[in-house]
Design brief:
Blueprint lengths: L11 E4 L2 E4 L3 H21 L7 H21 L13 H15 L15 H26 L4 H24 L17
Antiparallel strand pairs: 1-2
Helix pairs in contact: 1-2, 1-4, 3-5, 4-5
Length: 187
């Protein structure tokens, strides 16, 4: 089997139920989710099995769910029947966030993205996730989408922020506060 098809040589790509231009907002949204998935894979490669087995397992599950998000956005017509991403995934992310946040030191001000290599790539995941969310919002203005995907991406960026801080905390690397930040977080 050849991996190249030549069907996209004129600027179109296949989606579920048809073909669209490669710069279609639908392709922008799920393409950015695919980019995020690659960065999550990079984060997985940096998880030490000794101190981060729980995070590794969560990230691998998220990678599967990111494919589900992309699939849910790839329909030309409104999908009949259930989508792959549901509200239960949003609720589970909230539980994970709360669990990881319990490990983190108190936070009052903005912090600089960085610290350990793992924390740094998790901050990259957070920002790419926010871009994927923005692209999905744009898509939602043009056509009906699975609203759970938007909620999932919103909560997922919060998850990446929390676990970036946890990665630093577990490695005993202190987050660096943005020096001109006022107090923006409340306990």
């Amino acid at each position: 089997m050849s991996i190249y098809t030549r069907t996209g040589d004129e600027g179109k790509t296949s989606v579920i139920g048809g073909r669209v231009l490669k710069d279609d907002d639908r392709v922008e949204a799920y393409g950015t989710i695919d980019e995020l998935n690659c960065f999550v894979g990079h984060a997985v490669s940096l998880t030490d099995p000794v101190g981060f087995a729980d995070l590794r397992e969560n990230l691998l599950q998220i990678q599967q769910e990111l494919f589900d998000c992309g699939s849910d956005l790839a329909y030309v017509q409104v999908k009949e029947g259930p989508y792959k991403v549901g509200e239960e995934l949003v609720g589970r992310l909230e539980l994970w966030i709360d669990r990881y946040e319990a490990e983190n030191p108190p936070l009052a001000k903005f912090i600089l993205p960085g610290g350990t290599q793992l924390a740094s790539i998790l901050h990259v995941c957070r920002t790419v996730c926010r871009r994927a969310e923005r692209r999905t919002v744009t898509l939602s203005h043009q056509r009906e989408i699975n609203p759970a995907v938007l909620k999932y991406l919103n909560r997922l960026s919060d998850f990446f922020f929390a676990v970036a801080r946890t990665a630093n905390a577990r490695m005993e690397v202190q987050d660096i506060e943005y020096v001109r930040s006022g107090k923006v977080f409340r306990n």
